[in-house]
Design goal:
Elements (H helix, E strand, L loop, with lengths): L1 E6 L4 H15 L6 E6 L5 H5 L3 E9 L2 E2 L1 H14 L7 E8 L4 H14 L2 E2 L4 E4 L6 H18 L3
Parallel strand pairs: 1-2, 1-3, 3-5, 5-6, 5-7
Antiparallel strand pairs: 3-4
């Protein structure tokens, strides 16, 4: 089984979140391969190889980061609804409220017919020490559900 984490982690803190997500998922079961790729390097073929997908992004100017949007634009039409039901989760590092990013991602995921298995995790405001733990919990839950066959 493969969990793909597509990320845009431009800062030290967002890199810490990504590491927390990767580590937590990787600790669930040795049968699960966790692949973490920068959003600029992922194409539709890489998404097709995944059994579940997590998107990690920042919110910029009230919407998802341009690099994350670029990822979705490159894979949307090549995939269409071929992966309907793909288990999906995301987390958003937002200095403000994160609503624009959540709405944008939800629209795209609905069009792809992926299955959102947990509500988007929005990490709002200034950095707090509990943020990596929140991301770890999200990632571990997605990984555990995939391994257990729940998702």
């Amino acid at each position: 089984m493969r969990l793909l984490i597509v990320h845009h982690a431009p800062s030290e803190n967002t890199q810490r979140l990504l590491e927390a997500a990767s580590d937590a998922a990787g600790d669930i079961d040795e049968s699960l391969e966790v692949v973490s790729l920068d959003s600029l390097t992922v194409d539709a073929a890489r998404v097709r190889e995944a059994d579940a997908l997590m998107v990690a992004t920042t919110e910029n100017f009230g919407g998802m980061a341009g690099r994350t949007k670029d990822f979705f634009e490159r894979i949307y039409y090549p995939l269409g609804q071929d992966l309907a039901g793909l288990p999906f989760a995301c987390y958003i590092r937002a200095g403000e409220d994160g609503r624009g990013t959540v709405q944008g991602i939800e629209r795209i995921v609905t069009g792809l017919r992926w299955r959102t298995v947990q509500p988007p995790l929005v990490l709002r405001g200034g950095w707090t020490p509990d943020m990596p733990g929140q991301v770890s919990e999200l990632s571990a839950t997605l990984a555990a559900g995939l391994v257990a066959g729940i998702f």
